Amino acid sequence: MKSILLRLLVIALIAASTSSFAQKIKVGYWTSGFSLGFGAVMEQMKFAEKEGLDIEWVKFAEVNGPTRAIPTQAIDLAFGAPSATSMAIAADGLPIKIVLATQIAESQFVVLADSPIKSIAELKGKKIGMTAPPSAMHAIVNAILENNFGFKPTDYSVAPGNESRLAQFLTQKDADAAAIRSVTIAQMNEVKLRTLGSVVDEWKKMTKSSSPPTLAVTIVHNDYLAKNPEAVAKFIAATRKAVEWGSKNKPQVAEILRKAANMDATDSLAYANQWDNAYFASFEPQDIATLKRMNQIFKAAGTAKQDVQDSAFLAEPYQKSKLIK
Prior knowledge:
Strand order of the largest sheet: 2-1-3-10-4-11
CATH architecture of the largest domain: 3-Layer(aba) Sandwich
Number of domains: 2
Strand content: 15-25%
CATH class of the largest domain: Alpha Beta
Helix content: 40-55%
Radius of gyration: 22 Å
Number of helices: 16
CATH superfamily of the largest domain: Periplasmic binding protein-like II
Structural class: alpha/beta
Largest sheet: 6 strands, mixed
Shape: globular
Oligomer: single chain
């Protein structure tokens, strides 16, 4: 009898220690766009759980859903949150920290293959398809055209729209050129296009930096961060491992997307093949400098109202994540 009770006591102690080891965290992400691919891989492959986290995934149908949910603590951490909105709420003094850059603001300047336009410099006086203001990509493209090519906003006209509309503008010749994501270009396999240049390359030229423009970041509520700094570092470590895994396992990424987003085989593989162009997990000094430069550009474009305080950017959890193997 004593031996049975002893065994039961040992089992209870093991269960209690396991439960206390798994740190709870509510993570929100937008289940569309490029957030979908990264989020689906994180969720299905359980990278965060493997770091000892007890994850409650909270999914949002609208891109700014996570950034609206985090100040009220409906979630603890927002994964793949829009960089522009995240910096805006930080600048407003809401209790959040930006702790990681996760998604690249990636697009290509393209024309139809038979277009007489041979370079971005020849787009003066032309109609260019791009996302509509006040989007981050709109502000980035305008800044590149002004700083790298000397264009004023009056030197070209804009055909605004989402990715599918931009592709339509181009194929129907309602725009002379467009700034379109590589994944969209890969899915336009029946249309012959020619690339004039890369938004990422032009950004690096403009900023004289190796860090790409950042479309999305990870933000965390201050209260959760103060109480659970190790959990945040573990989540960042999981994110970094997911980036590496996705880069090396694109067919598996495509399979996850087929199930998570009901994509066909062609579109899911096209999406997966753009993994290295879309995702990263870094918060080095140059990444923080890039976000600050972006906020300056957003202010100049009228899409941001004020500067973001240095205290809104916290690199310590990222640095701690590097020690987690």
